[in-house]
Amino acid sequence: DQSLQQVRLESWLVTRLASGSQEDRMLVTLEDVPPLLVKALTLTEDRDFYSHHGIAPLSIIRALLANIAAGRTVQGGSTLTQQLVKNLYLTRERSLERKIKEALMAIIIDARYSKDKIIQAYLNEVFLGQSGDMAVHGFGLASYFYFDRPVYELDETEIAMLVGMIKGPSYYNPRKYPERAIERRNLVLRLLMEGNELTPQQYELAVSRPVGIATGDSLATGKHPAFMTQVRKELQTILADPNIRESGVKVFTTLDIYAQRRAEQALTSTLDRLQAGREATLEGAMVVSDIGSGEVRALVGGRNVSFAGFNRALDAVRPIGSLVKPAVYLTALEQPAQYNLATPLEDKPLSLSDEHGDNWQPQNFDKTYRGSVPLIDALSLSLNVPTVNLGLELGIDNVAATLKNLGVKRPVPEVPALTLGAVALTPFETNQIYQTIANNGAYRPLHTVSAIVSVNNRLMWRQAEYGEQRVNEESAYLLNYALYKVATEGTAKAIGRTYDNINMAGKTGTTDDYRDSWFAGYDRNNLATVWVGNDENRSTGLTGSTGALPVFLAYQQLQEPKSLSRRFPNGLGIAHFDPVTGAVVTAGCQGSMSVPAVLDALPPAQGCVGQSGEKAPAKKAKEKSWWERLFGG
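and the corresponding structure tokens:
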């Protein structure tokens, strides 16, 4: 078997970003058009196109005599060039004066432009139907409108159908009047046979075929409105460059149509289930991105996925709750001489006063205190009090700086409550934070536009493969390990129960009075951020574990998640700690915990601290996950 060297995936037409005018077209070049289409066009509309100089006098005389005999205008003798002039510059008025202007302008155009340029312009300008209040111009757009295919894929019957419609797009509309359309199509097919472009056998086969008209759904401009809103936002910036502004450009996006459908289904079906017994209407949003590139694969702005109004993924600015906590712990882990995953954090009643004398007494979700807790457990269990203590110890300004480093562009309030999520972001902005975390500390800006190509297939703009290592790989690895523990033993352990052989990571978030339910989670390749709440900012009664996390799980169940795979950075190794004191101990000490750590930053192990010095008796260890077997845990 020969190995496959190159694969070219054909792009899909997702939707169209139409201008504000009442006309729409999809520009094509002559090279895009089947030669048979040009033959059918000239045989039907202008047999002498390549020999005349813009007008055909004999045709004009014939039409003039017919009009005089009838006493009114009943016949035209226009060439393709004259038809182009009429469509571009003149009114539809039928008068001798307009006919003279048309002829003169056709002569000028024929003298100035090549036949290929003229026929290409005609192919893009001719009126071929109506899509709602939008006029369909040109064969490029009409091929999608009637057949849901690009023009270069049209067969002889489809070509004949479109060419036949030029005489009267409304009268020969194949959706409304299929018999008329077939009769006209067959006339064009006969002309092709008489012109030796089709054999008699091909002709007989073609005229026997049914109309075969598609729905035209590919031209709908309202598909995936939430995703397309972000595309438009990015295009406003990109197209500010005058060198890129051009009609008929093709915008290549990062949309994964299958991921989009899965995200829409996961959000709507889960919210429908959670809605039972609740007065306030639950809403939600979801963003799915590729971890390595920052490409947005799916974006859902609300429960009504076809609604083009308020886009909660981009515009709902809500407190992110415990989704901020990884930034606190990352700030600590970036100081490996002072903090590691086993560092004990104080978990005792805490009272703080602000400059106005108001007291703030943060509590854990379960209203209990543990005295002291290892750093990794404080994060995996989403404990509030140890997190606040750690944030105050680190400096709130440093936590705010970490958030900005992870990708937050909004002003971040430097107050103690920041450690518990007193920063309001959109789901899209929150996804950017976790994008950097999941990508081993490498920042990649989220984006939906990957390239822009001209009508002549010239590359006009491409998304730069920009990346910046904003967090050192050792610290990022340790944080990812802790977030993996969230998904196996912490507040998101439903993931581990659902996928016992697939490692994932993530973080739940809940805001005051259960107003907002958050979850950001990822497998090997994709990150998904989910928000669930309501537009009135009322209590939902849902935590991150009971609201947003089920949406994430529903999404994963619609695809095939891939187990996390993380390269072990140089300088890290498995270390053993006393879980109470955080002291480094030797392997095998009774009750010790084993976690990855920056080895050079640790003091030498001191045996089994606080114990008799004896190691724990050997026992058969329970089978560990792939991640734990490779990286410890």
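(Above: one complete record from the training split.) The radius of gyration is 33 Å.
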